[in-house]
Write the structure tokens for this entry.
Amino acid sequence: MRISAMSQMQRVGFSIELPSLVPLQLPSRMETHLWYILPDEVKSKSLLKHYSQLLSPTEKHRVLQMRGDELKKNALLARTLVRTTIARYQTNNASDDPRCLIFKKNAYGKPEVDNPPLHFNISHTDSLIACGVTVHVPVGIDVEDKERKIKHNVLAFAQRFYSPDEVNFLSTILDPEAQRTEFIKLWTLKEAYVKALGKGFSAAPFNTFTIKAKAHTKQGYDLCANSVEDTSKCNGDWKFALLELAGSHYAAVCTEYDQASGGAPLRVIVRKTIPFVEDELISQ
Amino acid sequence: MASLSTTSLSFKAPSIQSTRISQVLRKASSFQSISFGRFHSSKSLRLQISCAAKPETVQKVSDIVKEQLALSADTALTAESKFSALGADSLDTVEIVMALEEKFNISVEESDAQNITTIQEAADLIEDLVQKKPATSEAS
């Protein structure tokens, strides 16, 4: 389903106000909404200028600190994605103007927003920027380019930073390319967990927990304790999903288990966006 | 990629002319004041008293950062250059730390690795660890 608002603007150019964001209902329990932008699809200078007007002075300053035009553009798009995504979920009483959002940080520096009452997390690579949104439970996301090359030997890297079980798993993969792929997938899952926790990396060093694929199902991952005695003991408090976006990126989503949702697996609704221009629902 | 805000303070101690005392906070919000001349440590404070890193160390760190982030050779990096402003994500930062460990033959704790945000911080940490090594040997 594609909603395009470009036709009117194409006739008169950007001298008129850009249309409002299409408002959306909040995600339901155990549902994560995942929005992403492909920077290469955003080329219009006037559109980028419009985006820059949504940012706070601090955000603008940080964008300008980035070294080089491409990094500046991506930093701008990242803040734009966060503000416009959250603004879509404003309830009727509040303004849906992305400029009016007020962000704060939790005790560990994780960004939060009071109104609307949702959780969000952002991740970006050179070629894709993503923002995950949930209600009631914290969320963490991480995206990586599928083709990302690791400069170090993958197993040496894993031995240094991953858990013993994960190192064992990776060492059973003989094809170097497949091994690199699984390494990247694990990285995104582990990052997503730490970001969902929201307490910084010190609270959950990578070598203190194991993420492994669920047995007997095609997808889904479990967070497991690092105990040699009982690696089958997995922590049901956190849910994971691993997706492919745009055919080019892995995206890991981690949310806290919500009692009210029963045993339902994590459901992720993905949309690609160029804010104010086009939103596309990507069917899973 | 997560971003944590850290605050660092540096001030010149009048009686120690060439020493730079820097205070690094692990967590964004907790801050405890220290009185000069008497340092107390707590879970949320990490104090580092060190001479500012040698220019050669800063240069070696810059070279490794340029290589990891695939920056052009003529990119101007200073000690204050922030990894995030150069486009480094958390995976890049970890790879940079691994390269620094190999170059300087040191071992960086994971919590320290994640907290490095500038070239200066990396260089300071390296020199700190090199000094602490039991066998004194010149860094390569």
Q: What stands out?
A: The interface with chain A takes residues 1-5, 26-30, 68, 75, 81-82, 85-87, 89-91, 94-95, 98-99, 110-111, 114 of chain B (CB under 8 Å). The longest strand of chain B covers residues 20-25. Helices of chain B lie at 55-68, 90-104, 110-115, 119-132. The CA atoms of residues 68 and 95 of chain B lie 7 Å apart.
